Amino acid sequence: MPFHQYFNGEIFPIDAELFKTNDLGLLRGYGLFDYFRTYNGVPFRWDDYWQRFENSAKLLKLKLPLTQEETADILADLHALSGEAEVAFRFVLTGGYAPDSVNVIQPNFLIRTEALPQDNPAGRLKGIKVLPYEYVRDLPEIKSTNYVHMVLMAEEMKKQEASDLLFYKDGEISELTRSNVFLIKDNTLITSDQNILNGITRRVVMELAEHYFKIEVRPVTYDELMEADEVFTTSTTKWVMPVVQIGNHHVGNGETGKQTLFLQKLFEELVGAWGK
Amino acid sequence: MPFHQYFNGEIFPIDAELFKTNDLGLLRGYGLFDYFRTYNGVPFRWDDYWQRFENSAKLLKLKLPLTQEETADILADLHALSGEAEVAFRFVLTGGYAPDSVNVIQPNFLIRTEALPQDNPAGRLKGIKVLPYEYVRDLPEIKSTNYVHMVLMAEEMKKQEASDLLFYKDGEISELTRSNVFLIKDNTLITSDQNILNGITRRVVMELAEHYFKIEVRPVTYDELMEADEVFTTSTTKWVMPVVQIGNHHVGNGETGKQTLFLQKLFEELVGAWGK
What we know:
The structure is a homodimer. With about 280 residues, chain A is of the alpha+beta class. The first copy, chain A, is about 30% helix and about 30% strand.
C-alpha cells in the first residue's frame, strides 16, 4: 500500500515511526482527531469536518499549525500518492512534546491516509445489535482521543455478537461509541442534543429528512428508545445504520424499518452523486 | 543528557522517534502508565509500583510483555546508562498498533528514564493552593493516561497561582489530578477510598502515621475538607505536601500545619534511609 502520512511539515510512508515518547497525546491522552473520506475522489463535506476539527482544537486550547487551504493541499498530495480512487483521512492533533509532561508548547499535527472503512456493510440491510452501557463521554463536544471504554469492551461485544455500545446515563441516552443515534416514532425523527459529538452525518441526515419528517432535537430518554418504531445510528463509516437490537430488546419487530431504509437510500444517493 | 528508554525489546536514546501512528494509546487514549524513582540509587517500593502497574494492565486487559524480574534488569541498565545517581522511571503500556484502530493485538511497552522531578520543593514548607474542580476520574483505579482536564486547566492554574486541581463530585472529594488527599481533624487522619488511584505514597504515609494517629479510610465530603485543621496531598513527586488554600478558602489558619510537617519529616527520614 503506498499510503502516506503528513507529520509536522513532512510526508512519510504510513508505517513510519514518527512520535517521540514525551508526546502529550501519548502520555496524557491530550489529543483530538477527526476522520472523513472521499466520494468520487472529493472529500465529503470538507468545510464541515474542518470546522469541527477547528472547534475541537479551540476547546482543547491547541493552536492549529495550518490553515484550511494549506491542509487541503496536503490532502490532495496524500490522495495522489495513495494511487487509490477513494481514501479516508484521519487528522490527529496532540498537545505535542512536553519536557514537563504537563504544559503544551507546540502541538503535533498528523494526517494519516487510510483505506476506506469496511464497517459492516451487511449491517446496513439487516441492522446491528448494540449493548446498553452506562457511561457519558467526558467533554462530549470535543472529538477527543478518549475511547477507552470502546476498546475495553471490544471482546465482550464480539462475545455478545454486538457491533457497538449505546451510552446512557441517568435515564438519558447520548450516542454510540463513535456514532449518533436517531429514533423514529410515528413519523417523527428524534435525536439527542445532550452529551453528544456533533456528527456531520447526523447533520446531513437531518437536512435530507426535513422534507419528509417532523424532527425533534432534544434530550432522549432510554424508555423512549425502548418504545421507538425504528432506531438507527449515523456516522462517516456507518452512514445510516439500522439498530434492530439493544441488549435483549428488539426494536419494533426486530427487523430493519422502512423509514430507516428510505433515509439510507437518500444518503446513498447524495454520496453517490458527491462531487459530480 | 545520556538518558535512554526501552521500547519493545530495545534500548534507544530518550528523544528517539519510536511510535508508529496507529498506536491505540495515541489514537484512542488506550494506555496506562506508572511513575516511580530511586532513593540512594534504589527504586523506591518497587514491588508496590510493579503490582499497581500489573493491576492497571489487567483492568485494561493488556498482557504485560515482561516479568517483574526482566523489567528490573532493564531498569538497572537504563539507570547505569544515565550516569546519574538518582533517576525517575516512567512506564507506558498502550494498546499497541491496531490496523482497525479498535482491537488490541499486541501492547507497546515503553520505559522512559527521566531526570528527578523538581516539583515545587518550596511548596513542601509553605504549602500549595489548589482549585476545586467538579470532576470524577473515569476508571479511577487504573492509572490510565487520561489527564485531559489537568492539561486543559494548566494555564488557568498558573493564572490563579494554584498548583493543582481538587476533584469533587456530588459533594464528595476524591483526589488531586495526580495525588491523593488527606485531611487532619482532631488528631484523626482521614482519606478517601472512593474514586481514587491507589497511591503508593498514600500507603506509605498511612503506614508511618498509624503509630501516631487514628486513621479513617472512607468517603470524604467537601464540607469536611472545608472544616479540616490541616490538609495535605501525597504522591511520588509531592511526598507530603501541605495544602493551605482551596480556591478562596484558607485551610486552618492558612499556614502549613504542625502535624503535616511531622508526617513530612517521617517520610523524608524513610526515603533518606532507603536502600541503606
